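User: Can you recover a sequence for this backbone? Please restate the input before giving your answer.

Assistant: Of course. Working from this structure:
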C-alpha cells in the first residue's frame, strides 16, 4: 500500500490529531477514505499494541473532534504479522471540520481551507440540493413558444389544452413562475448554443470548419448528430443489393453521448456543449464534471446513475430520448467499447477514436485539409460501387485479390478495395477458399449462397439452388 488522496498512514496514536485532520481533508475532497495507524509513511507496517481501549480511544476522538458527525468502521488488521488499526470512513455532509478547522486533501497532504474556500463548498452544497432546471425564472425574459410546446406534447402522447396547462402538467410551472427547464426546451427566441468545429490536426491549431447553432435542446441534439455524420467517413454494407450507410463511429453511441451532454451539463456554467472533430477522434464536450460520488474509475461499472438536471431528464425520457434507468453510459460502452471518458477544467469529455485514423494505406489529399464530409462521401461511394462490381465478377470466380484488382482496372489494392472485401466477408456475401489460412498466397474469394441471392435479388433460394464454385 501507499499513501494517496484517499489513504493516510500514521505510525502511532501519537499522531492521532494529525490523523483527524486527514480524515476531514479526505472527506471534503472525496467523501470517503481510510486512515491507518501502525504503518510508516512508506507503507511499511510498524505494528502497535492494539486493545479494546486503543480502538475506543480512536473512536471517541473522532466523535469528539470531527463535525458534522461521522460513524467510521474502526478495526484491527494484521499486516505482515503486525497489528494495525484501520479506520474506514465516509460522509456526504461537507464541509467537515477537525478541531474547528477545515482541510482539503491535495495529493497526500492536508491543506487548511480559507474562509472563502469553505464558503464555496457550502454554496455548491446548497445548489446541489436544488437543480438549476427546477429553479424559477424570475427575470421576466422567458417567452414560451406555443408551437414548440404543442409539438412536444403531441410527441409525448399527452392531451393538449393550452400552453400554460401543458407547462403545469409537465412540472415546469411552480409558485407563479416558469422553471428553467422550460427555457431550454421552449424559449422564444431559443436559449442555447451548440459550438461545432473540424480540425486539420490532432490539436486545435488549424480549424477547417466552424459553425455555431442556436436553438432549443431538441433541435441542437439533432444538429450535433448531423454535424458529426457530415464530417466523418461513411462506409457501407449490403443488405441484399441495397446499400446501408455505416458511419466509422457507431451512430447510437455518439448520439447517446450528445443527449447525455445536454441532459447532464452544468447549466450554471455559461459555456456551451461542443463537438470537436479531429483526424483521429471525435469529442463531445459539455460543461460540468461528474456528480459527487461518481469517479472516472467507477463510471464504467456503476449500476446506478445520478441526474444533475432531473426535470430536463424527465422531459427527455417522456419522448424516449433517454431511459428512466440511466442506461446511457452502458449503451455507449456496448456500441463503442473503445470510447474514452475524461474531465478537465470543469469540462466532461466523451472521446470516440476514429478507425480511419489508423489506415496507413488510405490515399491522402495533397493539401492535407480535405474535409471529413468530402472524404467520407468519396470513400463510401467508391466502396459501395466496388462491392457490387466484385460480386458481379465472382459469378465467374473464384478469383484471388490480385485477379480482382486487374479485372476492376485498378493499379493496386486501394483502401476502398480492401474495405469492400472486408465488408463482403463480414456480410457473409463472399468467403475465402482457404479460410484457415487468410494470408495464403493461394487464397481466393468466391460467392456464398447469400452472395448469389444478393446478386439475383432473390433471398428465398437455399444453398442447393445455386451452382457450386470450385
Amino acid at each position: 500500500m501507499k499513501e494517496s488522496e484517499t489513504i493516510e498512514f500514521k505510525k502511532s496514536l501519537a499522531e492521532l490529531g494529525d490523523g483527524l485532520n486527514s480524515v476531514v481533508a479526505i472527506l471534503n475532497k472525496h467523501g470517503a477514505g481510510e486512515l491507518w495507524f501502525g504503518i510508516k509513511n512508506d507503507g511499511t507496517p510498524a505494528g502497535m499494541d492494539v486493545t479494546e481501549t486503543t480502538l475506543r480511544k480512536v473512536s471517541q476522538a473522532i466523535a469528539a473532534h470531527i463535525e458534522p458527525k461521522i460513524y467510521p468502521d474502526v478495526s484491527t488488521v494484521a499486516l505482515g504479522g503486525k497489528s494495525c488499526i484501520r479506520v474506514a470512513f465516509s460522509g456526504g455532509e461537507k464541509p467537515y471540520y477537525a478541531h474547528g478547522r477545515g482541510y482539503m486533501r491535495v495529493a497526500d497532504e492536508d491543506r487548511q481551507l480559507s474562509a472563502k474556500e469553505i464558503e464555496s463548498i457550502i454554496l455548491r452544497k446548497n445548489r446541489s440540493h436544488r437543480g438549476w432546471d427546477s429553479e424559477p425564472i424570475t427575470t421576466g425574459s422567458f417567452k414560451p413558444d406555443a408551437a414548440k410546446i404543442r409539438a412536444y406534447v403531441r410527441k409525448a402522447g399527452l392531451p393538449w389544452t393550452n400552453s400554460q396547462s401543458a407547462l403545469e402538467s409537465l412540472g415546469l410551472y411552480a409558485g407563479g413562475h416558469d422553471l428553467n427547464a422550460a427555457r431550454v426546451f421552449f424559449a422564444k427566441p431559443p436559449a442555447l448554443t451548440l459550438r461545432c468545429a473540424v480540425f486539420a490536426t490532432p490539436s486545435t491549431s488549424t480549424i477547417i470548419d466552424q459553425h455555431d447553432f442556436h436553438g432549443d435542446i431538441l433541435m441542437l441534439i439533432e444538429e450535433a448528430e448531423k454535424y458529426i455524420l457530415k464530417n466523418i467517413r461513411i462506409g457501407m454494407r449490403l443488405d441484399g443489393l441495397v446499400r446501408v450507410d455505416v458511419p466509422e463511429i457507431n451512430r447510437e453511441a455518439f448520439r447517446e453521448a450528445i443527449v447525455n451532454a445536454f441532459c447532464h451539463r452544468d447549466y450554471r456554467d455559461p459555456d456551451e456543449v461542443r463537438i470537436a472533430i479531429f483526424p483521429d477522434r471525435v469529442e463531445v464536450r459539455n460543461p460540468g464534471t461528474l456528480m459527487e460520488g461518481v469517479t472516472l474509475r467507477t463510471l464504467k461499472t456503476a449500476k446506478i446513475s445520478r441526474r444533475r438536471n432531473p426535470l430536463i431528464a424527465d422531459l427527455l425520457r417522456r419522448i424516449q430520448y433517454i431511459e428512466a434507468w440511466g442506461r446511457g453510459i452502458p449503451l455507449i460502452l456496448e456500441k463503442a467499447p473503445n470510447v474514452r471518458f475524461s474531465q478537465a477544467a470543469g469540462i466532461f469529455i466523451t472521446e470516440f477514436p476514429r478507425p480511419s485514423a489508423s489506415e496507413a494505406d488510405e490515399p491522402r489529399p495533397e493539401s492535407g485539409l480535405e474535409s471529413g464530409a468530402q472524404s467520407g462521401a468519396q470513400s463510401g461511394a467508391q466502396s459501395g460501387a466496388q462491392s457490387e462490381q466484385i460480386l458481379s465478377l465472382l459469378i465467374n470466380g473464384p478469383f484471388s485479390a490480385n485477379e480482382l484488382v486487374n479485372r476492376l482496372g485498378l493499379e493496386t489494392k486501394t483502401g476502398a478495395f480492401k474495405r469492400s472485401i472486408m465488408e463482403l466477408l463480414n456480410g457473409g456475401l463472399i468467403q475465402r477458399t482457404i479460410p484457415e489460412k487468410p494470408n495464403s498466397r493461394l487464397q481466393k474469394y468466391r460467392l456464398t449462397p447469400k452472395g448469389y441471392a444478393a446478386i439475383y435479388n432473390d433471398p428465398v433460394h437455399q444453398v442447393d439452388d445455386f451452382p457450386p464454385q470450385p
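That completes the design. Residues 133-186 form one domain.
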